[in-house]
Each structure stands twice: as C-alpha cells, then as structure tokens.
Amino acid sequence: MGVCDDAAQAAAGPVTKTVLGITTLGATTELAKLIPAGALWIVCVGDLQARHVLLGQLSPLAGRATTVISPSGMVSPTAKIGIGTFVAPRAIVHTAASVGPHCILNTGCIVEHECQIGSNTHIAPGVTLGGRVRVGSGTLVGLGATVLPGIRIGSGSTVGAGAVVVRDVEDGETVVGVPAHHSRRAW
Length: 187
Known about the structure:
Elements: E1 3-4, H1 6-12, E2 18-19, E3 22-26, H2 31-34, H3 48-57, E4 68-69, E5 74-75, E6 80-81, E7 86-87, E8 92-93, E9 98-99, E10 104-105, E11 110-111, E12 116-117, E13 122-123, E14 128-129, E15 134-135, E16 140-141, E17 146-147, E18 152-153, E19 158-159, E20 164-165, E21 174-176, E22 181-182
Parallel strand pairs: 1-3, 4-7, 5-8, 6-9, 7-10, 8-11, 9-12, 10-13, 11-14, 12-15, 13-16, 14-17, 15-18, 16-19, 17-20, 19-21
Antiparallel strand pairs: 2-3, 21-22
C-alpha cells in the first residue's frame, strides 16, 4: 500500500517519506507506473479538476479502481455505488440512489432516495440532497448545502457552502446563498 504525493516527493527527492504513516510511492506524474501489478487504487483528492487529470492518467488501470465505504457510512442495499467512489464516515445513501464512478460522498452527507449523482462529483460534508435530486458529472456541492427534492444540478457546476437550492442549476453554473442564486463573482 502507498500514496503518491507531489509535495512529499519534491521535498524528499529520492528519499522515502510517509504520509499519515503510509509510504509515498512517488509523484503523480508517474502515477500509472507506480501502482504495482494487481494492486487496487482510489483517487483521494478533493479538487475535481485535479481528480479529472489523475483519473485520465489512471485510465489504463480503470479495471483496478476500488470503492471505499467507511464502516460508519450507511448505504441502502438497493443503492448503486460506482467504482472508485469514497463513502465517508456517517454518509448516508438511501433507497434506489445511484452514484457514478469516482465520486466523493463526504462526511455526514445525506443522499436521499432515488438521487442520481454523475461521475467525479464531490458531495461535501454535511450536504443534504432531497429525494430524486440529479447531480451532473464533475460537480461540487459545497459544505452544508441543501438541495430540495427533484432539483437538477448540471454537470460542471458548483453549489456554494450553505446554499439552499430551490431551482434547477444549469451546466457550468455557480450558485450561492439562500435561496441559491447565480454567482457573478469569478472564483
């Protein structure tokens, strides 16, 4: 078992370092070469653009991605969790929900019944998605946001921390506030 860590490798040079007690294998630029034959992998990076790049580098090893579900995470037997997805402590995924590959369902989030979440999407800590919410691929739903039942959030969108989403969000749109509204600020 090991991790790839650009910062540790830059500081260490060829010397082996550890991150949280786990040996660094090398920098992410050599990612696909560093994973031993037959080993399983998961991307543990929260930044969606960085995740997208790393997943592209790992595409030759896609069949070896693994899913990690915390012992305190709760996933309904009728829910579907995509390969490479991380379900954090106290996250809840309810009946007939569907989560795409390589997602992060972070600490204490609630994904209610029949929600659909696209690939490489980050549902941040404390988020609540009401029933039948649809979240597109490559989307971030920020800390503590609430999305009312039946809402659609487009691909490549961002929902700001603490927002309450009461209307559909278009692809690539950023919404903030209560109720959530389009953000004019460039991040």
